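Hi team,

Filling in the usual template for the complex we talked about on Friday. All components are listed, including any nucleic acid strands or ligand strings, so the model treats them as one assembly.

SUBMITTER: L.P.
PURPOSE: interface mapping
COMPONENTS: two
RESIDUES: 634
SEQUENCES:
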Amino acid sequence: MPVGPGDDAAVLALTATQAAGVVVSTDTLVEDRDFRRSTSTAADVGVKTAAQNLADVAAMGARPLALLVSLALPGTAKVAWAGELATGLAAECARAGAVMAGGDVSEAAEIVITGTALGTMDGRAPVLRSGARAGDVVALAGTTGRSAAGLALLESRLLESHLLESRLPDPDLPEPDGVTAGLVAAHRRPQPPYPAGPAAAAAGATAMIDTSDGLLRDAARVARASGVVLDLDPGTLPVSDELRAAAVALGRDPASALDWVLSGGEDHALLACFPAGVEPPAPFRVVGRVLPAHGDGAHVLVDGAPWRGGTGWTHFS
Amino acid sequence: MPVGPGDDAAVLALTATQAAGVVVSTDTLVEDRDFRRSTSTAADVGVKTAAQNLADVAAMGARPLALLVSLALPGTAKVAWAGELATGLAAECARAGAVMAGGDVSEAAEIVITGTALGTMDGRAPVLRSGARAGDVVALAGTTGRSAAGLALLESRLLESHLLESRLPDPDLPEPDGVTAGLVAAHRRPQPPYPAGPAAAAAGATAMIDTSDGLLRDAARVARASGVVLDLDPGTLPVSDELRAAAVALGRDPASALDWVLSGGEDHALLACFPAGVEPPAPFRVVGRVLPAHGDGAHVLVDGAPWRGGTGWTHFS
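RESULT (copied from the run log):
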């Protein structure tokens, strides 16, 4: 990047191949809707902001290049909070291979953070939601349900400690422990599998989406855009011992872990469809198949039937 | 744009020449800090959002290509408001030659709008704030002070009509009249001279800035970044009969119009420096000259002396 923050704008130098498909996306996080200062540090929120935006670029099959972030926050918010946010942004950009290309700070009544991610197709065609065809396989890179389980654990612990109502500006965050520590970390710092995006495009993926709102809901978006039905095989979904242990810790049936996997959002796994003869590239693994559109209006099936449990994820509020 | 809103991201196809310098910038507008619903329609705010972001790209010498907008607003805000905002965004993008390349809508306690603008240098080198040299001329494209005068007129009229406190969600806006109508329009819908940016780069401008915070304040930024002094000639500044009439209408000395021109922000005129032998391209006109750095720390002079009046513009709050 020849010019960075400090001038009116940043300048990115792209090659002709990179420029043939420049991918851009923007997304906003609002305090108490998309994150809470009682359960996430500013650095956590920085990681989440970067992950959420860069994953949208990867979901087109693009390689992330740059992130811009505009931060609005109350005058009462500590300067330190913005600094720690930047630390988290930088860390996740580095993990994705992207640069921070500028930003802006304003004053507002609550914290509102908008990221804009840029990426390149590196000469490949973008992978849309609308290209899935009957006969394709459905594959998943990354896992789902871990962020939702981590949030459920945090909320349970917060209720116990009455932290939920206290809204301390810089709380001692509850510490994760034992088998569930990884789930709490997954909620605070989602880790999208960025290289899987370009790998899917290179392998000939027919459709792809960032599962930011939950597997069922985002699979339905692909199905609707493509005019097909996605049939998921529950035996292949990432229902782990870790998730079952979390269910037990919360006094639930361990089998209910499947609800998190199907409906929990904000893990930013990538869901893609591939032609039947194509081996999905690692880390994708097959989790279902694409069927012709039915007459009954169902877009997603689980083991051949509509799912009767949760139907999606509308943030934690 | 091969892919528009509806997928995870938009895709822009750039030529190799366009890609060699891709310019990106982001900027946020917050309700009651950067605009008021009592004095601006949603379409006005859309124009202002687009203008503010696209002007930052032009100030690097780039040609605007695309705009992304993320809107956070209360659930009580009318859907119609967002629709009218989009109308204003589209109108100003069209004026700048840019496309709307996507967006995002969230819920928040107050209206927060973040734009991200993309442009291209078309193969030229970006024009930074830091390149001004003693002996250069200082030139201005567009006018300054008109937005601030328009706001002063609106506030005066609002106070009269008690609208300022009523915060109606969809007020009957006060109608501008007579000689001041253009000033109120300039406040509601700033019109940056976008083509002047690339024209300045092509002509060999040594430094450039978007005068979003006022002529004196933004000239000082160029001076500091370049290690020089900018000396403005008040006789060449855009102090118009229109501004003098506004001062009189508000019961002020007509000579005070110069304060608006020097300190009023949000007109998004472009201030640039050119080597002495270069004729600044239209619509730039010479308004001063660049001097070597003094020992006294002054960065901007007016007619050879530090200005004793206003020193800048920190939004209307």
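MY TAKE: Chain B is about 30% helix and 20% strand. The longest strand of chain B covers residues 63-73.

Thanks, L.
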